[in-house]
Amino acid sequence: MINPIPLAFMLLCSTSLASTAFASTSELSATVVKDSSPTSMVDSLVTLQSQYSPKATADRFESIIKDKGFTVFARIDHQKNAEAVELSLPATEVIIFGNPKIGTQLMQCNQQVAIDLPQKVLITEDANNKVWLSFNNPQYLKQRHDIKGCDAVLNKIANVLNTLAKAATTK
């Protein structure tokens, strides 16, 4: 099992980019930060470079998902929280969101996936001032929770996440 904390750290610190993705989600992004863990068969995160600032990317994503009928459960500004305890952190924000019409279908396949729901996106700025938007690869969730017989639901989720992410990150 992959620990999400090192994955988030790898995402923030990684300069190694790969342009491969799991076959059924290859359309998700031309830019994927690859999980180098030897136990992973699937890239755990799909990452797209944003053409906007971290705040603008997060604001755009939030606006887009609200317009599409998604619920925003939380928006966590880790940089601001770090500053509150006199620590520094580059722009790092998480938006937690969902739609029970989609998420419930996935939980009907395997209730354990609920630990990874609602969906989340991570918006970060790296040391080179590049802004990234990342989300869990649905194929990673399939592998992590041994989901069988739900490829149509997983592909629907992948397409929705990809569409939302592209809309928030491109001009």
Automatic annotation (TrEMBL):
Residues 1-23 form the signal peptide. It holds the Pfam family DUF302. CDD domains: DUF302. Gene3D superfamilies: TT1751-like domain. Residues 76-138 form the DUF302 domain. Keywords: Signal. This is DUF302 domain-containing protein. It comes from Shewanella algicola.
